[in-house]
Specification:
The protein is α/β, with parallel strands linked by helices. The chain has four domains: 2-143, Rossmann fold; 160-269, Beta-Lactamase (2-Layer Sandwich), CATH 3.30.450.20; 284-442, Reverse transcriptase/Diguanylate cyclase domain (Alpha-Beta Plaits, 2-Layer Sandwich); 462-743, Alpha-Beta Barrel (TIM Barrel), CATH 3.20.20.450. Helices cover 46% and strands 22% of the residues. It contains 28 helices and 27 strands. The strands form five sheets. The chain has an eight-stranded mixed beta barrel with strand order 19-20-22-23-24-25-26-27, surrounded by five helices. Strand 20 and strand 21 (499-501) form a beta hairpin. The longest helix has 37 residues, at 123-159. It is rod-shaped, with a radius of gyration of 52 Å. It starts with a strand and ends with a helix. Residues 311-444 form the GGDEF domain.
């Protein structure tokens, strides 16, 4: 093996080229200098003899090769054919004798790349022939590599999950601007995506393959990619008829004066994302935005308000009035339909840029942006009330509702969305406590009251735990005979720092927080325990007619407890008190808001011997049509009707009507809040049965109640039954007051 270096320090064009010189040794020696003059780069020349040895050398070679074959060594073309079959990629230059002119053309058919006659060999001729052969081989190799690369590329494209399109730009013939794109290649996924066969896609303009509006937008995008050379990747919605896709992942890569596009249908993924978004940010019942979505939007509004001083916004907090009545009386299914109808009405009377959300239950929130004037919120609130107050007709039921609306106006004070929603909630609470069906705008004083209320709630929880409550007892007497028939047990709270707290202040908080349940349980148990103790102490028979009773108020939340009957039975059993000595006082609203269960519960209470009183009659629903359905024993006239009765105002006629109604239903009547003798005289003239109030006695502590009882029994000769009989027989001579507290 010999090496022929490049001459004149030239850069080799074929570094590492290996030439197999198949010739007899004598000719090989002569040809090597000739080759050295013909090639200007270093090559390796490998003399081979005999010709059969070339096959072994070809198998061992790992570089590009060229074969120089002296055909004079072979009597026929078999050697040439064999070499070409074993190495079809290696070019073969055949050297012929003058006598072999006849087979020159046959050598080309047998696999030779070219042939030369030895007699004509010169360095320049050999150089031209070798360069022609090598350049041609290089071009063929590049073409082969390109074909292989394209084959691999399209094989990968066919296996890909993405649609692939190759587009060539089409320019205006005069202005040289891109005006369209022509599809030059497409894979099977691309065919499926467009819903067209390959032959209907190739050679077609983009404007022909897609609708005009869609193609115009895409041509603009694709032109930008070609001109900037920047890859574009995006997810875009698709609304192209008749394509079945709605979302597409789209990547455009510049490719010379054209582009390569990969596209994937992501409609299913987007649909799942949309479903997850809906579940996370929308209320499933009304399909309104939920609390999370509302708070996100409110956060952005606060950020915008921080950047613009002229930006006005407001938050409305709506709570439906008496929705629970509908839900409990007509069922939750109709209640759900009612909520959906309300949601539609609220949405219909707001602007598109406003947001209404359902926070939960029967609570809604509204966000108003870009208000021209903050004062406009009054008109908006009034419009909402008008819309809601119109009757709803659902499944042959005509339903009505109103809303208590709290409004918080956006100011620079608010930095957190929770703060402004809280203040709107506080204002809503004020609207509800002031009579419902109204709207109130938040002011800072409300926040102060809300903080105090929160502190009261916290203290109330501790008070129940620490047993800071006590009971006082207000006597109830017969107006005609002045006989004591019982006491009403009233709860009082002595706060360790604030002292005595009015029931008007803490009872409503206990109701709203549910603390009324444990508190009410204690009141019932303690009232029964105390009366049973006095019965034993003063030898008062529980079977007397009528027996001395204790009246206990039952709250709405207690009445709705599923274990109410069982708990009362347990209290009676543990305290040893007879059911006939217990009166339970309920308000009209408790019965009316629980129509479906009220009658059954009242019957079960009556079966325990308990007497039932309707408290504060006349101040609530005054539903006379329902009154006869309930197994009641007593009506209690609210103090608001007793006040002023002596002046013979309209209250006198109301009391007269209530007494007439009670007599027709065979009910006893107790007048509450009797404070003057004139009031008592009028009630006596109207033949009202019983009274309680400051005229008879203030509520008394257990110790003073015990003293009251003792003095009362002494005034009755320590025998209530016999004393009662004597009093009734000799009432004209009984001028001294039998009421210990008044006598004192």
């Amino acid at each position: 093996m010999s090496s022929v270096p490049g001459l004149n320090g030239s850069t080799p064009a074929y570094p590492g080229l290996q030439i197999l010189l198949i010739a007899d040794p004598t000719l090989a020696v002569l040809l090597q200098p000739l080759l050295a003059q013909s090639l200007l780069e270093p090559v390796q020349i490998v003399p081979i003899h005999p010709p059969e040895a070339a096959l072994a050398q070809l198998h061992q070679a790992d570089r590009s090769e060229l074969i120089l074959l002296d055909l004079a060594l072979s009597e026929n073309l078999d050697c040439l054919s064999t070499l070409h079959q074993h190495a079809p990629h290696v070019p073969i230059l055949v050297l012929l004798e003058e006598s072999q002119t006849g087979i020159a053309e046959q050598t080309l058919s047998a696999g030779a790349t070219d042939y030369l006659f030895k007699s004509e060999l010169t360095p320049s001729l050999l150089r031209r022939s070798l360069r022609y052969i090598l350049h041609g081989t290089e071009f063929q190799q590049v073409e082969a590599n390109l074909r292989q690369s394209e084959a691999r590329f399209f094989a990968a494209a066919e296996a890909s999950l993405d649609a692939l399109f190759i587009l060539q730009s089409y320019r205006h013939p005069e202005q040289n601007q891109i005006i369209d794109f022509v599809c030059t290649d497409v894979n099977s996924r691309g065919e499926k995506l467009l819903g067209k066969p390959r032959q209907a896609i190739l050679g077609r303009f983009l404007s022909e393959l897609l609708p005009v509006d869609s193609s115009k937008q895409l041509i603009q995008k694709y032109t930008l990619v070609v001109e900037t050379g920047q890859v574009l990747e995006e997810e875009l919605p698709v609304n192209i008829t008749p394509l079945p896709i709605t979302w597409l992942h789209h990547q455009i890569v510049p490719l010379g004066d054209g582009i390569a596009i990969t596209a994937r249908d992501i409609s299913e993924r987007k649909q799942k994302e949309a479903e997850l978004h809906r579940q996370a940010f929308y209320d499933p019942l009304t399909e309104l935005p939920n609390r999370t979505y509302f708070m996100n939007r409110l956060t952005k509004v606060l950020e915008r308000a921080g950047r613009r001083q002229d930006f006005h916004y407001a938050v409305f907090f709506l709570d439906l009035d008496r929705f629970k009545v509908v839900n409990d009386s007509l069922g939750h299914l109709l209640g759900d339909e009612f909520l959906k109808a309300i949601a539609r009405r609220l949405s219909s009377c707001l602007r598109e840029e406003d947001m209404v959300a359902r926070l939960g239950g029967d609570e809604f929130a509204i966000l108003l942006e870009e208000l021209s004037n903050p004062d406009i919120v009054h008109r908006i609130a009034e419009r909402l009330q008008r819309v809601l107050s119109a009757p709803f007709t659902l499944k042959q039921h005509e339903l009505f509702t109103t809303a208590s609306i709290g409004i918080a106006l956006g100011t620079s004070y608010y930095e957190q969305p929770e703060a402004i929603l809280r203040d709107a909630d506080i204002a809503m609470y004020q609207a509800k406590t002031q009579g419902k069906a109204r709207h109130i705008i938040f002011d800072q004083a409300m926040h102060t009251r809300a903080v105090k209320r929160w502190q009261l709630e916290s203290d109330l929880r501790w008070a129940i735990e620490r047993r800071e409550f006590c009971l006082v007892y207000q006597p109830i007497v017969s107006i005609q005979t002045e006989r004591l028939i019982g006491f009403e047990a009233l709860v009082r709270w002595h706060h360790p720092q604030r002292g005595w707290i009015s029931p008007a202040e803490f009872i409503s908080v206990a109701e709203e927080t549910g603390l009324i349940i444990p508190l009410g349980h204690w009141v019932l148990w303690e009232g029964c325990r105390q009366l049973r103790q006095w019965q034993s102490q003063f030898n008062l028979s529980p079977t007397a007619e009528p027996p001395l009773t204790v009246s206990v108020n039952l709250s709405s939340k207690q009445f709705c407890q599923p274990d109410l009957i069982h708990y009362i039975q347990q209290v009676l059993q543990q305290t040893g008190m007879e059911g006939t000595c217990l009166k339970l006082e309920l308000t009209e609203s408790i019965l009316m808001e629980n129509l479906s269960t009220a009658t059954s519960l009242l019957v079960q209470l009556k079966e325990l011997g308990i007497q039932l009183a309707l408290d504060d009659f006349g101040t609530g629903y005054s539903s006379l049509s329902y009154l006869h359905r309930f197994p009641l024993d007593v009506l209690k006239i609210d103090r608001s009707f007793i006040n002023g009765i002596e002046a013979e105002t309209e209250n006198l006629e109301i009391v007269r009507t209530i007494l007439s109604l009670a007599r027709s239903l065979n009910l006893q009547v107790v007048a509450e809040g009797v404070e003057t003798q004139a009031q008592l005289d009028h009630l006596q003239a109207l033949q009202c049965g019983y009274a309680q109030g400051y005229l008879i006695s203030r509520p008394l502590t257990p110790e003073k109640t015990e003293q009251f009882l003792q003095e009362y029994l002494q005034s009755r000769g320590k025998d209530p039954e016999s004393s009662e009989q004597g009093q009734e027989e000799g009432s004209d001579q009984a001028n001294d007051s039998p009421y210990p507290s008044r006598a004192a």
